[in-house]
Batch of 2 targets.
Target 1
Amino acid sequence: MNIQEAWAYGRLQLAHASSFPDLDARLLLEYLLQVGHSFLVAYGEKDLTLEQELGYRQFIQRAKQKEPIPYITGMAQFYGLDICVNPSVLIPRPETEQLVECALAWAKSRQPLQAVDVGTGSGCIAVCLAKHLPRAGIFATDISSEALEVARKNAAQYVPGRVGFYEGNLLTPFPAEADLIIANLPYVSRDEWTMVDDGVKWYEPTIALIGGSDGLDLISELLQQAMSKLRPGGAIFLEVGWQQGQAVVQLARKRFPSADVALIADYAGQDRIVSICTG
Ligand SMILES: C[S@@+](CC[C@H](N)C(=O)[O-])C[C@H]1O[C@@H](n2cnc3c(N)ncnc32)[C@H](O)[C@@H]1O
């Protein structure tokens, strides 16, 4: 089997299992051979070794069972970085890049400052903040020790010594006050959970996804905790479910009545970020 044949085999096998069979087959082949897209195109007639062919067939079988590609390759792209992932962390999503962008736009001119990423998972948000805010103290919390292990690994690779990690419930383990609180917390409701894609439901950690019966348990608790942890003039940026914007705005106004609370739409026009600026 040569590269072209392997790619075609992968594409065909994934035709019903994936929304992007061609892309997924290619990414697995690139990962297996440790090459880029252009190599596959230029050397399409190069034969795979028997070992490579067996390895590729195994990857394709895993993807066919709906295992997300980043869990197979151990890597997900986020804000221009290759972030290490495993099944104890949520795979970073493109919409979260916009959350990072909004927070950076607020924070860049306000350095030095202290920022905390609540529910850090793979550490993707904290790592980006540390990379783009060189004069900020960056901290991150998560309730999952396994997730923190992955986050520490990513921070060590990209921003060694820059992120302080704390294990525990939301802001509780963070011993100080912060100017910036950023969080992409679990926000899937019980009803929505039944409609979530199988690949997500079967492989991604439920603790990273379900936010109680209406999806708002953790966001609501965080806002309450933030009342005593956010410095005057500080800001909170939250990623929310596309139908939760107004509900989170109400919660935020209740906790921070004099703050400027805004709903920010994603590139698809859906409300996905709530910003709460107290300054
Ligand atoms: C939706 S994931 C987000 C991960 C990462 N920040 C991202 O954007 O890809 C939510 C994270 O919150 C963590 N989490 C869930 N409940 C928590 C709690 N009570 N306190 C702190 N972290 C929590 C989960 O372990 C998970 O890593």
Target 2
Amino acid sequence: MSEQTKTSVATQEDKRWSMVETTMRRHGFQPRALIEALHSAQEAYGFLDTEPMRKISKGLKVPYSRVYGVATFYHYFTLKPQGKHTCVVCTGTACYIKGAQQLLNSIDENFKVKPGETTPDNKLSVLTARCFGSCGLAPAVVFDGKVAGKLKPGEAVEKIKEMVKSK
Ligand code: FES
């Protein structure tokens, strides 16, 4: 991976996290902001992964066990999906206008998997997010944690094929 790509991945990651941080700041980093912060994380990442949940626990000074408890109690929240690889398609306004739905249709046609589902071989989970904070890259998709942008349906399908081929 080139230095430039690494920087871009780090920057995109920061953007997603900074959206969660903004929510916590708006609530004065009070523990009662937990549900709001989890909502924000799910919208930015597409699901709740361990790392953002740990950072929320630290940011709001709430025990991780409680963060995890709340995340698993409400059906609205999705914990890290069971697929070995994840593909999160942003369906926020900018990405929607630029073709997010076509990406999802193409993924479904090729891999027979809809948002919120995992392929029967458990290799791929597909999710949607509300905004990664990278609207300039619309339509944006996060493949195994790495943001890719300005994707055409065929390119998204190729990226998934490469991803599921890798270990
Ligand atoms: S709407 Fe997709 S990244 Fe903002």
